[in-house]
Amino acid sequence: KVTLKEAFKGAFYAGVAINRRQIQGADTKGRELIATQFNSISPENDLKWSSIHPKKEAYNFKPADDYVDFGLKNRMFIVGHTLVWHQQTPAWVYNSESGNKLSRDELLKVMEDHITTVVGRYKGKIGGWDVVNEAFNDNGTFRKSDWHDIIGDDFIEKAFEFAHKADPKAELYYNDYNLYVPKKREAVVSLIKRLQAKNIPVTAVGEQGHYGLNSPAVNQVEASIIAFTATGASVNITELDINVLPNANQQINADLGNTADYQAKYNPYAAGLPDTIATQLANRYAALFAMFYKHKAVISRVTFWGLTDGDSWLNGWPIRGRTNYPLLFDRAYNIKQPVFDAVVKVAGR
Ligand code: G3I
């Protein structure tokens, strides 16, 4: 039986985000499935700032080291995620011990130290880095964050410069979601051109693929791939998953809790995914992969954001305690045959 990495060999890497239980915990089945099916890994959380550098003077390298060792052992393309982000970053990063915000120069120094240490440690092992994650709003303006407030628009450029210095051979990516939204897409095209004009290497745009069953339209995503690759950069489809559940608002946790109403309305497939929805999911994945495959010359990697449905962050977002089915493997580590088959068929397998 064909595996994902065999099916897409010569087209793009088949990637997956992996978690702590799979890296160093009891999830042997998960580890085996990852090694069998995928030839690239991303760390779901273990290389984020709060995990790897929780205190100013204290790094927590062990989970990241184990993650990298797993990838090396299995000869995978290893991704680093992520160096500069507004989430999962401890408060000490932006504040002095007396509680005042750092100056631009002080924060740049903290950024440089972190990037130099983390990228330097995995030099030649981690093949590419999500240098900056989610810096723009959907309307194309800079997202409000301490990074932007304190350093200014060039915080992205600086992060790329530091990363390039720490490992000149590593690929460097800008990663974000909703990049099919035209204003956001244009902001990222401008960013890439700005970096290129200053001779700051940027390898690819990471397009997070957190999609729904019906939106975005495949041609909107395609338009963004065309726009990004027109700059000469390539594209990685990162964080791919397809949410099959109805939209829910974060308030619902507090308002309804775990009542029967809540379950019926917002968690409708707790007992299993109906065939009709499984078919929609297969068709949706097939349509997306057909488009990715068409652009395989400029797409380097397609990475799922999680291994099995049970691992997915979408069981807990935007409200907790749901049963989602966004991926290609079920909660018992089985291939979801119709969905998986629809995907590999795109590559003629
Ligand atoms: O590790 C702690 C654990 O010790 C604690 O008991 C538990 C209680 O809440 O929390 C655990 O940390 C959680 C962590 O995942 C590891 O499971 C955090 O609360 C939780 O917030 C964190 O969520 C991650 C999220 O990023 C953080 O914003 C998700 O797993 C991860 O899938 C998600 O990934 C992001 C990408 O990095 C960037 N793009 C969007 C994507 C989805 O949000």
TrEMBL record:
Family, similarity comment: Belongs to the glycosyl hydrolase 10 (cellulase F) family.
Organism: Mucilaginibacter antarcticus
Pfam families found in the cross-reference section: Glyco_hydro_10 (PF00331)
E.C. number: 3.2.1.8
Name under which the protein is recorded: Beta-xylanase
Enzyme class name: hydrolase
Organism lineage string: Bacteria, Pseudomonadati, Bacteroidota, Sphingobacteriia, Sphingobacteriales
InterPro entries according to UniProt: GH, GH10, GH10_dom
This protein's UniProt keywords: Carbohydrate metabolism, Glycosidase, Hydrolase, Polysaccharide degradation, Signal
Entry superkingdom: Bacteria
Catalytic activity: Endohydrolysis of (1->4)-beta-D-xylosidic linkages in xylans
Record domain GH10: where: 1-346
